[in-house]
Design a protein that fits this description.
The chain is mainly α. The protein has helices spanning 4-14, 16-19, 23-27, 34-56, 65-86. It has one domain (4-86). The longest helix is centred in the middle third of the chain and has 23 residues, at 34-56.
Length: 87
C-alpha cells in the first residue's frame, strides 16, 4: 500500500488545479520534493496547453488558458532556479 504522501502526489499530478489554487503554490509547498513539484507543474502545463487548443477551437471554459500557461511557466522557471541553487 502506498503512503498518503505518495497518494497526494499522484492525485496532484493527475489534477493539479484540484489540489492547488495557483501554480506558484506548488513551488512553495513544504511537503513535496523537487521531483514531485516538477511532475505536478509539467502536468499542469500540459493541461493548460490542451485547454489552449480547445479554446482556439471555440470550446472555451474557465480561466483564459494563455494566462494559466504563463503562470505555470513562471512557476517552472522559479522551481528550476531554486533547484539550481540547491545543487
Amino acid at each position: 500500500m502506498m503512503d498518503s504522501s505518495q497518494d497526494r502526489t499522484d492525485d496532484a499530478i493527475a489534477d493539479p488545479s484540484r489540489h492547488f489554487g495557483r501554480p506558484m503554490e506548488v513551488v512553495y509547498d513544504d511537503v513535496l520534493d523537487i521531483d514531485a513539484k516538477l511532475h505536478i507543474l509539467e502536468s499542469w502545463k500540459k493541461d493548460a496547453q490542451l485547454l489552449s487548443t480547445a479554446t482556439n477551437e471555440n470550446m472555451a471554459g474557465g480561466e483564459p488558458p494563455a494566462a494559466l500557461l504563463q503562470e505555470v511557466n513562471l512557476a517552472l522557471d522559479k522551481l528550476r532556479k531554486i533547484c539550481g541553487s540547491i545543487h
